[in-house]
Write a structure and sequence with these properties.
Elements lengths: L2 H32 L10 E12 L5 E10 L2 H4 L9 E9 L7 E7 L5 E6 L5 E6 L11 E9 L6 E12 L12 E8 L7 E13 L5 E9 L13 E11 L14 E7 L5 E7 L5 E5 L4 E9 L7 E13 L5 E5 L6 E14 L7 E2 L2 E4 L11 E10 L8 E6 L9 E5 L5 E6 L8 E2 L3 E5 L11 E13 L9 E4 L3
Antiparallel strand pairs: 1-8, 2-7, 2-9, 3-6, 3-8, 4-7, 5-6, 5-15, 10-17, 11-16, 11-18, 12-15, 12-17, 13-14, 13-16, 19-28, 20-27, 21-26, 21-29, 22-25, 22-28, 23-24, 23-27
Length: 486
């Protein structure tokens, strides 16, 4: 073999090695960019993965996993002023061998904090939820959960694989700090002996909330059941509240920043202390899970919209416990209907300047909520407003911006008025109240379109306002009205 042939062979081999190394490097860069074990500058998110194997046995067809989620404090330390989206977690199950054994997974809090924004698939094989770390006190952001995997009946042992994924998206233009990560740790809580199972009971119902009847009650008698201590002195169980909201008619646009139009809370029957509170929107069911609770409680569902539209709320409460004894129980009790405790009306005609940089429509009514603290529900209230632009007005349409501040804001409600066409509006009258008093609603006019300057044209608006207040906390004080100078 000649020297030139040997040189060409060596050269070809080196080129192949270089190409192979470069290909591996490119593939590795793509993989670790899409699924980084640690954060790299400008990747925009952190992701953690964890897998566990569990075995369900015929004598005890249930397995329990304690999951701990932690965040490196450096994730937030270099971007303390940025607003982070919640961390998204997903747990999926797969039965070994591809069998179709009906396996379900549930999540319960391991501490006193409810688990919000829970999402389950139709057959219960996966569950997802979110952790909101976007508060100063939560910037260390450690949470613990109990994952319960169960089957209705088994003829033989079944092996179940759990895949746990956590992902934290970063705000736009916020680089991820170098070499930080999220911690995922899961340990199985041993279920020893026979007869242990996840025992559940549930109650459900349907209510309607409207601007005329914005509050609905349902009394519940709940028995937590006997939850034995498993290995590690751990008892496992909890409560799940599921809400499905549907709008009775076609939706009225209320703005992207509008709060959830329906809220639900579970409060203690005796002292009215809030056990859990959650907002719900039409569409996907809203689920929150809680620690086990017993005794009598009250489910409160209330209307908080910015438009005169009604909602149907289908609710379900499920109590569960891993036990070999009597399980939990949920029973519906006879419940009195909610009643308005304060009502007032006012009306008038107001000359308004189109495009004026001040509110020149006021209703002369303030709201005093009484004594309200963070542990109790504030009273509910509705402002129903009938408006009509003077039929003789030469200007129209115009937009009335209804708000609680002089220059509007996130809570501003735009209302289009045309000459001679009555408009009915309903808004949550007690939203954004502070120190027990609600800022008065007021209105200012502007012309439609990009130009918002003063047109030096005055129009007359006829209006009629009705205020209603409801007390939703049995132990709370009664709300009332007070007069304002118009």
């Amino acid at each position: 073999m000649s020297v030139s042939t040997i040189a060409r062979t060596i050269g070809s081999g080196c080129l192949a090695v270089v190409i192979f190394v470069l290909l591996i490097g490119v593939l590795g860069l793509v993989y670790f960019t899409l699924r980084p074990p640690f954060s790299l500058p400008e990747t925009g998110h952190l992701q953690g993965d964890l897998k566990r194997e569990l075995v369900l046995r015929p004598e005890s067809p249930v397995a329990v996993l304690e999951l701990e989620v932690t965040h490196d404090p450096r994730i937030f330390s270099e971007s303390s002023s940025a607003s982070f989206d919640p961390t998204r977690l997903t747990v999926t199950t797969a039965v070994a061998g591809g069998t179709k054994t009906p396996v379900r997974i549930r999540i319960y809090p391991a501490d006193a904090a409810p688990v919000a924004d829970v999402v389950r698939d139709g057959d219960g094989r996966s569950v997802g939820w979110r952790i909101d770390c976007d508060t100063v006190e939560a910037r260390n952001c450690a949470r613990s959960y109990m994952l319960v995997v169960s089957a209705d009946s088994l003829a033989a042992d079944v092996q179940v694989s759990l895949s746990i994924t956590a992902e934290l998206p970063f705000p736009p233009h916020v680089p991820t700090p170098f070499l930080v990560s999220m911690g995922l740790d899961a340990r199985e809580i041993q279920v020893e002996g026979s007869g242990l199972d996840l025992r559940t009971d549930e109650a459900s119902g349907s209510v309607s909330v409207t601007p005329d009847e914005p509050v609905a009650f349902q009394a519940l008698a709940m028995l937590a059941g006997t939850a034995p201590l498993l290995t590690g002195d751990v008892s496992v169980g909890g409560l799940a509240l599921e809400l499905t909201v549907s709008r009775d008619a076609e939706g009225i646009p209320v703005g992207l920043l509008a709060p959830p139009p329906v809220r639900a809370a579970i409060i203690a029957e005796g002292d009215g202390a809030v056990v859990a509170e959650v907002g719900a929107r039409p569409g996907q069911p809203t689920i929150v899970t809680l620690p086990p609770i017993g005794a009598d409680h009250l489910l409160v569902i209330s209307w908080h919209d910015r438009a005169a539209q009604a909602y149907q709320v289908d609710w379900r409460v499920e109590a569960g416990a891993v036990t070999d004894d009597s399980g939990p129980a949920v029973e519906l009790l006879e419940t009195a209907e909610a009643q308005s405790v304060a009502h007032t009306t006012t009306s008038g005609e107001t000359q308004m300047l189109v495009g004026a940089n001040r509110p020149d429509l006021g209703f002369g009514v303030g709201i005093d909520l009484g004594e309200v603290d963070a542990a109790h529900l504030a009273p509910a209230g509705v402002l129903r407003l009938d408006l009509e632009l003077d039929p003789e007005a030469s200007t129209g349409p115009v937009i009335l911006v209804l708000s609680r501040s002089e220059y509007g804001g996130d809570e501003a409600v735009p209302i289009t008025l045309r000459p001679g066409e009555p408009v009915r509006v309903a808004v949550d009258a007690v939203a954004d109240c502070t120190y027990g008093r609600c800022p008065p609603w007021s209105g200012r006019l502007r012309a439609p379109g990009p130009s918002r300057g003063t047109t030096d044209e005055s129009v007359t608006i006829r209006w009629h306002a009705e205020f209603d207040l409801w007390r939703v906390d049995p132990a709370g004080g009664a709300p009332s009205f007070y007069e304002l100078d118009q």
